[in-house]
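Input C-alpha cells:
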C-alpha cells in the first residue's frame, strides 16, 4: 500500500534545510517526518534536481487530449459515422492511428455502438393521407364484422365482442 505523499512545500523545506547544512536526523526531528523519508526526498533531489512529482512510466498516448475530445464530439454528434471516417479525419489533423485505438477511446467515454436513430414508420405524406381518409369517413356509420360468418373456424385469434370496437377495422360494403 502506498503512503500519502508529502506536499511540495514540505519537500522544498527538506531540501532547503539540507542545503543549509542540516543532517537527516535534525531535518526529520524539525519537520516531524521519518528519517528515511527525508533521505528519499534528498536522494531524489540529487538525482533529478527537482522535488516535483515525476511522470509515471508508460507509453505516452499517440493522440493529444484535444484530438481525443474532437473524436468523442464527432462520434456523439453524428451517430452514423464509421471508424474509418473518424480515422481519416484524425489523419488529416494529427498522426494516423489504428481503428482499434479510436474504438478504445470512444469506449472509454461510453460510446459503444454508433448506430443511426430508427426511421419513423410514418412519413409526413402518410400522415396527411391518413388524415384525409379519416376526415372523409368521419360521418360513416360503424359497419364492423367481428368474426367470420361463413361457419368455419377462423385460423387466427378471434376477438370477443366485448373487447371493444376500437381494435376492429371498418369493412366496406
Amino acid at each position: 500500500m502506498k503512503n500519502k505523499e508529502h506536499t511540495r512545500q514540505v519537500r522544498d523545506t527538506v531540501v532547503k534545510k539540507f542545503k543549509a547544512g542540516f543532517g537527516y536526523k535534525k531535518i526529520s526531528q524539525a519537520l516531524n517526518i521519518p528519517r528515511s523519508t527525508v533521505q528519499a526526498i534528498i536522494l531524489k533531489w540529487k538525482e533529478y534536481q527537482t522535488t516535483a512529482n515525476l511522470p509515471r512510466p508508460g507509453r505516452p498516448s499517440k493522440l493529444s487530449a484535444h484530438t481525443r475530445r474532437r473524436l468523442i464530439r464527432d462520434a456523439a454528434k453524428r451517430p452514423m459515422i464509421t471508424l474509418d471516417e473518424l480515422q481519416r479525419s484524425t489523419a488529416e489533423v494529427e498522426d494516423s492511428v489504428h481503428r482499434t485505438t479510436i474504438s478504445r477511446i470512444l469506449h472509454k467515454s461510453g460510446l459503444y455502438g454508433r448506430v443511426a436513430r430508427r426511421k419513423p414508420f410514418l412519413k409526413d405524406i402518410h400522415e396527411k393521407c391518413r388524415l384525409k381518409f379519416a376526415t372523409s369517413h368521419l360521418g360513416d356509420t360503424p359497419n364492423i364484422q367481428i368474426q367470420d360468418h361463413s361457419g368455419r373456424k377462423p385460423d387466427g385469434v378471434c376477438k370477443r365482442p366485448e373487447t371493444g370496437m376500437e381494435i376492429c377495422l371498418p369493412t366496406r360494403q
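Residues 35-48 form the longest helix (14 residues). The chain is about 45% helix and 0% strand.
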